[in-house]
Design goal:
mainly alpha, 12 helices, 0% strand
Length: 228
């Protein structure tokens, strides 16, 4: 028996089972009435199904991300930004090494390369320096040192750091000319920018050992920051 089929005078609810169903029905009616009122006054807005269903997982994912961030911040040892450190110094290289301030002899492709370098046409300069190397191949030409030096600078500006490092190595290995200490210094900076502080340390030590040179003090400071 239910409330719709009960006869006049009959007792309802007649048992505990009907009592429970009646209570549940009344609670459902009251809940729907309350929800309707809340929506009417803009207090309750129905959320999309996926937002309700996946809210728990979203919260768990957010908590996991926060944990990972905290682990990186507090557990991973901080490292000096060697690449940024080197970049700051390398930005000064073009003005520091203006080819018009150097007095080494120059002819042909070397002259054209340095002129292109002064105009910041680094790709053109690099081609001229390659041509100059072909012209003097197999000889002990006094221009070799400056060719490698300005080729290294040109490649550095073209973001060919590996090529720049190779040119600076060759420049420093030519002897004790006017470009040797500068090539050693720039080689150290290029290694740092490449993220290779281990290779940079020997070059920084050579630079720091040069007396009465401003770059020596900078190199020493870098070594201290590297813990060397």
């Amino acid at each position: 028996m239910d409330i719709l089929t009960a006869q006049p005078g009959a007792e309802f609810p007649a048992n505990d089972h009907e009592t429970r169903h009646l209570r549940l029905a009344l609670e459902q009616i009251e809940a729907e009435r309350l929800e309707t009122q809340l929506k009417k006054h803009g207090i309750l807005r129905r959320q999309p199904f996926f937002a309700v269903a996946y809210r728990k997982w979203a919260l768990l994912a957010a908590a996991a991300v926060c944990f990972l961030v905290l682990a990186v911040v507090f557990l991973v040892p901080s490292q000096p930004d060697f690449q940024q450190l080197a970049s700051v110094q390398l930005t000064e290289a073009i003005s520091d090494y203006n080819p018009t301030t150097r007095s080494a002899p120059e002819t042909g492709a070397v002259f054209l390369g340095k002129q292109a370098f002064a105009r910041h046409e680094f790709a053109v300069a690099n081609r001229e320096f390659d041509q100059a190397l072909l012209e003097i191949a197999g000889t002990e030409n006094p221009q070799l040192e400056q060719i490698y030096f300005y080729k290294g600078l040109s490649l550095m500006q073209l973001d060919d750091l590996s090529g720049a490092a190779d040119s600076f190595k060759k420049c420093a290995a030519t002897g004790g000319g006017i470009y040797q200490k500068d090539a050693t210094w720039l080689l150290a900076l290029v290694f740092l920018k490449m993220g290779d502080p281990k290779s940079a340390v020997p070059e920084l030590k050579k630079t720091a050992a040069v007396r009465h040179w401003t770059k020596a003090a900078v190199a020493q400071k870098m070594l201290e920051q590297l813990g060397k």
